[in-house]
Amino acid sequence: DDLILFNIHHSAFDGASISIFLRDFSLAYETDCSLPLDDEALQYTDYSVYERQMDMTLSSDFWQSQLHGYNFECRLSLPTDRKRSSSDQRSGLASIAQISFGEDISTAFLNYASAQKVTPFQLGLATFYAFLFKISHGQSDLCVTCLNANRYKSELQNIIGMFVATLPYRIQLDSNWSFDELVKHVREKCFSVLGHSHYPLQYILADSHLNQSNHHFLETVFDFITISYDMDHFSLNDGTFEKVPLEQSVNLAKFDFMLRFIYNPALDDGRLSCRFTCSHDLYDKSTVEKIGQRFQHLFFQLFFSKSSAVEIDQSITSINKLLLILPEEYEEMRGTLFHRLPSIFNEGMFIHFSACFLHILGGS
Question: Residue 277: phi, psi to the nearest 5?
Answer without folding.
Answer: -120, 110
